[in-house]
Sequence to fold (377 residues):
Amino acid sequence: MTIVFRIPASGAERVGFAYSPAMEAVLSLHVLVEPKHHPVQHGWVRAMRRLSPGLKREIEAFAFAVRSYFPEFLFPRPTGGLPDFEGELAALRTADPDLVRLEFAVPLLTSWPGSGEGRDPHVLDRPEVRRRLRERAVEESDDAMAAMLLDDPRALLERFLTMLESYWREAFEDEWARLEPELAAGVSEAGQRIAERGLYGMLRGLWPEVRSDPRTEKFWLERPHDHDVVIGPDDRLVLAPSAYVWPHVRVNCDGPWPLGLVFPVSSIAQEARPRIPPVQLVGILRALADDTRLRALRLIAERPRSTQELAPLVGVSEAALSKHLRVMADAGLLERRREGYYVLYRLVSGRVAGLGPSLESFLHSDDHDHGDRRPTD
Fold:
């Protein structure tokens, strides 16, 4: 299933950039409650052992809301100025309580208990849904959280924002002072890419989380539900760089919150890319040094493909293409998966993402021991 955004390749004026201290703080809370798949941010996880016991308990009480979900009311607006943390919290305190309750209910329900498109907040008033929500809220948090979720969403929002304020004062205010220049640079860099390469040229940098096709003027993300979103002339798509969203890309496709993406700022993405040992790097560069292989690799990057599908697209026989694919698989660029009669080849995304940083690291390395060695065939 996929969330598809449709926006003209010439629609840069429909894009707005933003970054947000409140959003970044909540994304860092996700790192604290799910540290095992955030190795780049393990320094922050270790540093936060010093948080006060009361704040740790409140963060744990709200873990259900940030573990595998992101409250969409935190998405920054693509228009207007860049508010400070206090300004953002003041705006959040005016949010519609029914929509706030919906955002905290979504991660507690495995599937939305309604029919049709969108999420109707009034579905949460059904007796069977209220019963299920109470059970899940008590299981994931505490009795007080369950009562607020069901009957007092304003109090629930206030409890959440009070926790966020305490976290800001104890820890994240200084971290934001460090991060804000980095995120501002990320906005400038992304805007420059759009100016030089167009909107879809910039979006290609978010692959493989975001896949795009400028010919059909759409980009998409694999998610647990299907949604087709058209960014019209009067709409805005917000693109928000973040240091703590890595390795994810967060997406919102539902109003009334801003439509858009939260993506890893380039400095974090580069730091996180794996480095390829020099001997393996030589093999990868050799595997890429062929026009037929490069064209096949580009097609496979769009989606997994079989030899039978690829051969006519690149203009060679199946036997010849099989040899090319074997070279790239042996270099670690491709992996094979059998589906019935066919063997599908898919790109090993980390291998490709690590190629540029690994080559740059090799060229600027202070270790000269490998400079005199010649790779053997």
